[in-house]
Amino acid sequence: MLGHNAGLPVKDLIVPLLNPAADLEVPASDQITHLVETDIHLLSIVLWLFLGIGLPLSLAANIFSSANLLSRVIMPSGILCLSLIALWLLRRQKINATLNVFLWGMTALVCAQCVLVNGIRTPMAAALPVIVILSAWTRGARHSSILCCAIIFALSAMAVLDDRLWPELLPRSAFQYWVIYSFCMVLGAVVAGRLAAAMRSHAARQTQTADELAQRVRELQLAQDKFATFFYLNPVPVSITLLADGTYYDVNPAWEKLAGWNKDELLGKTSTQIGIWVTQAERDAWIEEFRRQSSSSNQPVRFRLRNGDIRYFQASCETINYDGHPCIFAAFVDVTARREAEDALKQLNARLEERVSERTQRLAEANLSLANTVDILQRTQDELVHSETMVSLGSMVAGISHELNTPIGNALTVASSLYEQAREMARNFDGSNITRSALKSFIDEQQHGAELASVSLRRAGELVASFKQVAVDQASERRRRFDLAETMTGVLDTLRPMLRFKPIELLSELPAGIMMDSYPGPLGQIVSNLVQNALLHGLDDTRTGKVWIKARQIDESVQIVVSDDGRGISDENLGRIFDPFFTTRLGQGGSGLGLSIVYRLVSTVLGGSIAVDSTPGQGTSFTLSLPLTAPVGPAGAA
């Protein structure tokens, strides 16, 4: 037995073709549902007629009757009670109970009215045939027969006892006869009309069902023709075998061509008898799996063909009913060539994996060597960065020492003068040669000298504090909240001594009140490097120049611009200025690390960005865009 290819709608196509009766069944449930709905509708109409017409007419016919009170009351009250009870049961979908209560109740009520009035001669007896018709329509022949027999028995009894029980007839008015006959005719007309409408509807549905069945027969015949084409002309091998023992019922020409057996040799034989399975264990396992799932899709199997070749297939099967027997409709795809190609590919992959393993090992060794080289380069870069930092600190220290010389020298001069004056006063005091004017002059000179020394020392202390804050910030890279203007002013104070003997002016526009929660040390080092880069590369000649430092707040960020009016940067060098070790003054004091350090600090520690704009001959402008609050984490780690 062989299977079918994936994606083929086998079960949906084969089951209606091999089981035509399943597709030609009359939808009896639809008819039953319709009949029940018709019964409910008819019963509802009858009940409302009894309640809406029968009750008023009964009251009108009995109110002026000469019969006793019981005869006049029993019919109106009975109609009212029976109608309300029946409507209550009908509302709760209790159809059988509603019919039983109404039919038998009305029959008993009419018979009781006849007994109380004129027996079989009572006009109310005309309603009994209508009740029997309604019973036959809604409850069937058996129930109507029982009800008919009961009514005939009651009428017979009243006929036999007519002379004894009703020797004198109660007078009945023409209105009473009109009421009874009119109501019976209306009720009979309604029941007959509904019965006729139901019969016409039933006949129309029967005609429609016949047309649908004829159309289905034509569609089934067309589907059978298509299936014959699909089965016998399909290039995919297909077979139909008995589920129990694998007896072949039919195969298509493609199956015959591939397997090597023709149909006459196969029909009536099992797959085990022709020996198509390689081993019996494979067939048993496949059958067990198929019985458990009732179908299979693309399941790999092996078959031995008539010429003895063993080939691999992907089989897909469905269970069908063929001539009243459970069978397997199966088709298969020969995947022997693909399997051989997959085996060859696996061998090739194994060889490639061996080669990749060898290459990976050699690459790992090369990577280890490269890692060692990178480590050496990293240490070298760290040493160069440290050297660049030390050079920057050396320049700052030189400027600090020069800046401190003036106030400290002034304080030292004043202190020496005060010391000499004190010695002279001491000599005069020992000789008792002190005059009032000399004492007053000494005091004035001492106060003036002390004031000059205090001012000079205070200036030196302010410079030391400013330089210390800048140095501490750059050394620790500690995060804190600071005012941008105050911090930048301290940084610029450390840079101004380098410009004392140069025709270069350092200008700043730093508005107060821009508060930042960031790293003042890296920010100061960035500004220092940019200013020193302008002095070293843009304004290295003796002509007059200017360097501007401007800042402004934009929403939650601050923009700092460091610009100069120097020679500018050429277009071929503009894209490389942030590369490590790139410099145009190699061997002339340039390390190529200043702007690289600036870029690293801006993009990682401060979490911002830097852009450069330069025109040769017109100067260079560096624009820093920094958040007021530096990022926390790896990007903001100092």
Short description:
By secondary structure, the chain is of the alpha+beta class. About 65% of the residues lie in helices and about 15% in strands. Strand 9 (about 545-555) and strand 10 form a beta hairpin.
Helix content bin: 55-70%
Strand order of the largest sheet: 2-1-5-4-3
**Mean pLDDT score:** 75
How large a portion of the residues is in β-strands, by DSSP E?
5-15%
Catalytic activity: ATP + protein L-histidine = ADP + protein N-phospho-L-histidine
Protein name: histidine kinase
Organism: Uliginosibacterium flavum
GO molecular function: ATP binding
Molecular structure report:
By secondary structure, the chain is of the alpha+beta class. It has four domains: 28-209, no CATH class; 234-334, Beta-Lactamase, CATH 3.30.450.20; 373-474; 477-636, Histidine kinase-like ATPase, C-terminal domain (Heat Shock Protein 90). 63% of the residues lie in helices and 14% in strands. The chain is built from 19 helices and twelve strands. The strands form three sheets. A five-stranded antiparallel beta sheet has the order 2-1-5-4-3, with helices on both faces. A five-stranded mixed beta sheet has the order 7-9-10-12-11. It is elongated, with a radius of gyration of 59 Å. The relative contact order is 0.06. Keywords: ATP-binding, Coiled coil, Membrane, Nucleotide-binding, Phosphoprotein, Transmembrane, Transmembrane helix.
